[in-house]
Design brief:
The protein is mainly beta. Helix content is about 10%, strand content about 35%. It contains 2 helices and 11 strands, in the order βαβαβββββββββ. The protein has helices at about 10-15, 30-40, and strands at about 1-5, 20-25, 50, 65, 70-80, 80-85, 90-95, 100-105, 110-115, 115-120, 135. The strands form 3 sheets. It has a 5-stranded antiparallel beta sheet. β6 (about 80-85) and β7 (about 90-95) form a beta hairpin. The two termini are about 15 Å apart.
């Protein structure tokens, strides 16, 4: 995992203000510990595994600025993608690769797979709940350039 166009410490500080964490696979905290810290046992199981392909329209669907109604604790199983979060101090972008756990507690974000990816999806809510996505209406801007 790497942040795009921003110092890692500054990125983590900004993300913390919106309840978001990007936990790399080489962290002191493994996937299970992150999930246990964020979701109660009754909500911690993988709800589904999905395969995501790079989109034809990068600003539609999850590529549009949105918030979800549930707390998320997803794990990237393979591939790479670009996520961008909106914070009070401005945007924070990162490239997510296998092993990263993304924790989102209602933060406004958008996502674009760069290669085919596989994700394990976990989130709060009762067993039949979905993520409750809501497009925020923030206009699309160019995606950050990746080195």
């Amino acid at each position: 995992m790497r942040y795009v166009g921003i110092d890692a410490d500054e990125a983590r500080r900004r993300l913390a203000t919106i309840g978001t964490e990007l936990v790399p696979p080489d962290s002191d905290e493994d996937e299970g510990a992150v999930v246990a810290r964020v979701l109660p046992d009754s909500e911690s199981a993988v709800r589904l595994e999905v395969e995501l392909d790079p989109p034809d329209e990068p600003d539609a669907g999850m590529g549009a600025w949105h918030v979800n109604g549930e707390t998320e604790a997803h794990t990237v199983r393979s591939g790479s993608g670009l996520v961008e979060f909106w914070t009070p101090s401005g945007p924070v972008a990162a490239v997510l690769e296998a092993g990263v756990v993304m924790v989102v507690r209602g933060g406004e974000h958008r996502y674009r797979p760069l290669t085919m990816q596989r994700w394990a999806i976990r989130h709060s809510g009762d067993p039949d709940a979905d993520l409750g996505p809501r497009v925020t209406g923030r206009p699309p801007t160019p995606w950050p350039e990746i080195d």
